[in-house]
Amino acid sequence: MMNSLSGRFLILTTIFVMLAEVLIFVPSIARFREEYLQNRLERAQIASLALLADDMIDGDLEQELLENAGVFNVVLRRDEVRQLMLASPMPQPIDATFDLRDGTAPVLIRDALMRILEPENEVIRVIGAPTREAGLLIEVTMETGPLRMAMIDYGIRILVLSAVISIVTAGLLFIAVRAILVKPIRGVVGHMQRYAAAPEDARRIITPNAGVTELREAEEALRSLQTELISALRQKDRLAQLGSAVSKISHDLRNILTSAQLFTDRIEASEDPLVRRMAPKLVNSMTRAVHLCESTLAFGKAEEPSPTLMIFTLDDIVADVLDSERLAVGDHDLSLSENIPPLFSLRADPEQLFRVVSNLVRNARQAIIATGKPGEINVSAYEDADNWWIEIADTGPGLPPKAQEHLFQPFQGGVAKGGTGLGLAIAQELVRGHGGALELDRTGPKGTVFSIRLPKGEDI
């Protein structure tokens, strides 16, 4: 129980209430000492007034008056004359003098604490102002033993009362905390446990009903999280089914494309110059399609293919990409250009880099054609001491905010109508496989720029 929220709250409440009572106890005990001394002065004043009324008081009556007042002697000053009104033998000399007329709170607290801590019975002189202006001052001598015992008795009663108040207060707060906080928190935990047992069941989503603002906010956040998780799990199931279907399709498509490769070998023997010029590009396209199917099958087996690194010139890859995209441009006013330094070489997997550049150029081409306005796409490259850089810039309309938010997430970052958003996700994964990075440099109404960074280091 002590490790629970309510148990610890009970302990802390008791400690804090006791601490508050201790802070009250110190000035209270000082006030009690002052009132005790003031009471002795008042009794002594009454005894002295009795003597003034009758000068013929015998010794026994005088001793009785002093014992009733709890003092050894009484000095009263009236009309500037200091008179010893009552007197009896003192057991020892006076140890200290206390003037109650000018005692400040710190002084009274200090004197009270010193009296409690001093066990010896001493004789002290106490000076004060007479009540009802019955003189200029009154002075008595008394023992400190009875005063200290009275202070201790008062302190014990205060501490007992403080303990009772602390326990009652802590108990009430304990009950209140359990009803207001602990019970709703346990309800939230119970919802989480039931939801964890069957996260696909939408009926187990929590319904916020807490009266405490913070707990209600926690319940609403939990409901939002559970709703998103259910959607994610459903999407995961659909992706798993889609992946299984794609693997089957890729297997059959690979066989079909392999057969098509055999036919393209014969096309290369044609005498038509245009056919002979286009045949190698067709062969390359078939080869890439077969390789893509094989990669898809490998991905379905959770066997990510590592890039096969080699040194090659970039302009050949970029030229193939732009040639393929020019066929798709058709009659649209869209220019495709490159700014690649002559013999610009880099170290990468040429097939994977072709797919990365092709995905980026294709996305740019589709975005510009969708606007129906003229545009331009440019592929450039440069290098520094540590990296090779490839930039794909276009003059398209820019990426919408939603696409920027889910830029590299499959099935969420699509821009074109009917798009899946797989292109950028695949491109980013391939670049990461090289130890590099694919980043969106800028986007807006004037166009978009993506940059590919490939490190020159040997390690990936």
Question: Can you describe this structure?
Answer:
It catalyses: ATP + protein L-histidine = ADP + protein N-phospho-L-histidine. This protein is an alpha+beta fold. It has three domains: 5-169, no CATH class; 202-248; 306-455, Histidine kinase-like ATPase, C-terminal domain (Heat Shock Protein 90), CATH 3.30.565.10. It has helices at residues 5-53, 59-69, 105-117, 145-197, 213-267, 273-300, 314-329, 350-371, 401-405, 422-433; strands spanning 73-78, 81-86, 96-99, 123-128, 137-143, 310-313, 334-339, 345-348, 375-383, 387-394, 437-444, 447-455. Strands 2-1-5-4-3 form a five-stranded mixed beta sheet. A five-stranded mixed beta sheet has the order 7-9-10-12-11. Strands 6-8 form a two-stranded antiparallel ribbon. The radius of gyration is 48 Å and the shape is rod-shaped.
Outline of the structure:
The protein contains ten helices and twelve strands.
Q: How do the strands line up in the largest sheet?
A: 2-1-5-4-3
Q: What's the average pLDDT?
A: 78
Query: What global shape is seen?
Result: rod-shaped
Q: What separation lies between the terminal Cα atoms?
A: 54 Å
Low-confidence stretches: none
Q: What series of H and E elements makes up the topology?
A: HHEEEHEEHHHEHEEHEEHHEE
The helix-and-strand class reads alpha+beta
Number of helices: 10
Catalytic activity: ATP + protein L-histidine = ADP + protein N-phospho-L-histidine
Pfam family, one: HATPase_c
Coiled coil: 215-242
Domain Histidine kinase: 248-458
